[in-house]
Each structure stands twice: as C-alpha cells, then as structure tokens.
Amino acid sequence: MTKKISLFKLFWIFFKIGLVLFGGGYAILPFLQSEIVEKEKICTQEQMIDYYALAQCVPGIVAGSVSMFIGYSARSILGALACIFGMCLPAFIAMIIFATMLGNISHYPIVQCIFNEIGIAVCVLIFLTIAELWKKSVHDFWTAAIFVISIAATLLFDVSPFWVIILSGIFGVAVKILRGEKRAD
Amino acid sequence: MLIDVFTEFFKIGCVAVGGGYTVIPFLYYLIPVYHWYDADTITEMIAVSNVTPGPIGINMATYAGFQANGFLGAVLATVAVVLPSVIIVPILSKILKKYKNNCFTEYVMYGLRPAAVALISVAAIQIFTSTILTPDKFANTYRITDIISLKSLMMLCFFSVFGFFLRKRPMLLILLGAIAGVFVYIAEKFV
Questions:
Q1: Looking at the structure, do residues B74 and B90 belong to the same domain, yes or no?
Q2: Could you say which of B49, B57, B131 has the minimum Cβ distance to residue A123?
Q3: Is residue A31 a contact partner of residue A105, using CB atoms and an 8 Å limit?
C-alpha cells in the first residue's frame, strides 16, 4: 500500500498543490485524490478522509494539517515538515510579491475574471471529489444519518466543524457498540 | 517588536481551529493593541488572499506579518501560525499509528468519515452559491432566470464537461480556469 518516497518528492508534490490551491481547506482534496492517492499511492482514500476529518479538530490551517498527516504517514516527522514547507512556500512567495510590488491586485478586472472562472473550476472539482469519496464513507443507514445530520447542523444551525467531527466520532462508537459489533480478534 | 509578531501569531495558530477564515477575527483583535495595520488593510488582505495561491490562513499571516515588520515579520508570522499544528499533528499521528488496528479507532473513523464528507459538501454548496449563483438578484426580482447568469451557466457546463475528462488532472483544470478567465475578460472588454 505505502511505498518509500523521497523527502524532496514530498516537498515538490505539496509545492505544486500549494501553487494551484485557491480557496479554503476543502480545495486541497481533489489534488490529494489525484496526486497522493491515485498517482503516488502514498495513502489510501480512507486515510485521506480520516486526515481531513482530524485536521478540522486540530489548531491551525486545515490544508497544512492534512498535508502534515500525509507527510507523517509517509516519512515520519521529516516528511511532515517537508509537506508543510512545500505547502506554505507558494503562499508565502505570492504574498511577499503582492505586498512589496503589486499592491492590491484584486481590484483589476482581469484578476476578477480569472478568479471567477477558477472558482467555478474548483467548485466542479469539489463536486467530482465528493462523488468519489461518497462510496467509501456513506455505505449504510447510520453513516447516511450522520451525513444528513452533519449537513443540517452546519448549514442550518451554524454548528462549528469542530463539534460536528467530535460528536460524529462519539456517535460512530455508540452505534457500533450498541449494535454489538465486535471484531474476531 | 519581532517577538510580539511571533507570540501573537503563535497564539492565533493555537486557537484558529478549522482553518483560514477563523484567523480573521483575531486579526481585528490585534489592531488596537499594536497598530500594525488598520481595518481597511484586513479587507484588502482578505481580497488578495482569495486571489493568491495557497491556503488563505497562510496568505493572511504572511501579509499581516509583512505589514507589522517587513520581510522578517512575514517569515516569523508564517512560521508561528503553523507551529502549533507542526507540534500537534505528529503527536496525534504517532498515537493514531499506535492504535491503528484497535477496533475503537475503527469505530471512531466509521462515524468521522460521513461527517467529513458532509463538511466538504457544505463547503461545496457554499462556494456554489457564492461563485455561480446570484441569490441577491433573485431575492429582488423572484424571477427564476435571475438565480444564475447565462455566462456562469455556460461556464459551469464547460467546466463540468472538461472536469469530467480531466478529473485525474485537476491542476490542468485550474490552469484552464485561468485561461478561460483571460478570454472572458477580453470578450467583455472588446466584444
């Protein structure tokens, strides 16, 4: 399942992802799916979802935490550092350039046009990724219930993602124990 | 001064659970304390972060650090804001590795996965409404055709078709988005 990957390779993959990442933490998933899960096979799709869920609950930037979880699973602590460095570098360089030279580029009409179209592209990518992730995570009555309740809680009642993740973890354990499922070992 | 930049952004990194936009209220909180920047700069910062590559939280830390203390401030603010997660994620990963085959971990993940997909879906619905739909216009006229502009609808169809074929190459789709943006700009300006 996992294969040894060089630290520079890890850095390079996340540097590339950092370059094309527009939007919040969720925007990283289509790239992880194609680069990490399918192309390099560093982790499985389930692991990717687990890391995304855990990243919602730890302090810090979601995209950064997800990349560190993946880096750690591949190459331990140095892997985590290579990933976070690669992830932050494009953002850092871009902001320095804008702060020192370009000023507020978001006023230019051409930048707004480009960003609008990239926004639509990101949106399409996220929906395609959701379709992909759905199979592995929503597969019976209880997981469907958690899915629907979580959407309603965040969208209608503005519950923070932190509590959604914590409570569904507890809910998952409760369901499994109440149904008396025990593993053979 | 530099030590202030570091400690303040380290604190932000500790409390900003859930990423990017949770950083914003803390940036406002710093204004009266240090006068590194003003409220207008924050609005500008958010706008620039949105159109620059990289996680928005990192963008904003770099920009705010730069306003506070130049290049060195930017480096320190960026390092400080990720430092809490750099400490916590490896510890959590180690614990996770140790209990990987524990049935309890499996039960927790059974509950976590659908919730994580739900959170991603909520994000998708939100960016769909904000980038593609025009709910404000619809609220004014109540005409169903006003909920989406013809241009956005065309672009949505265009990206859906290309997205389906390029789903293994998402980076290409982003590049295609940028190119399409240039064409839309030219079309709007000269046609």
A1: yes
A2: B131
A3: no
List CB contacts (< 8 A) between A38 and chain B: 168
Whether A64 has its CB under 8 Å from any CB of chain B: the answer is yes
Kindly state the tokens that stand for A143: 């997981």
For residue A141, count other CB atoms closer than 10 A to its CB.
8
Interval A136-165: pLDDT, tens: 888 889 999 999 999 999 888 888 888 888
Q: How many domains does chain A have?
A: 2
User: Are both A109 and A178 inside the same structural domain?
Assistant: no
> Which residues of chain B does A58 touch, with a Cβ-Cβ cutoff of 8 Å?
17, 85, 88-89, 92
Q: What is the ipTM of this complex?
A: 0.85
**Distance between CA B127 and CA A167 in Å, rounded?**
25
Q: Which amino acid makes up residue B9?
A: F
Q: How confident is the model over A70-117, as pLDDT tens digits?
A: 999 998 999 999 999 999 999 999 888 887 776 667 778 888 888 888
d(CA B131, CA A115): 10
Cα-only R_g, chain B: 21
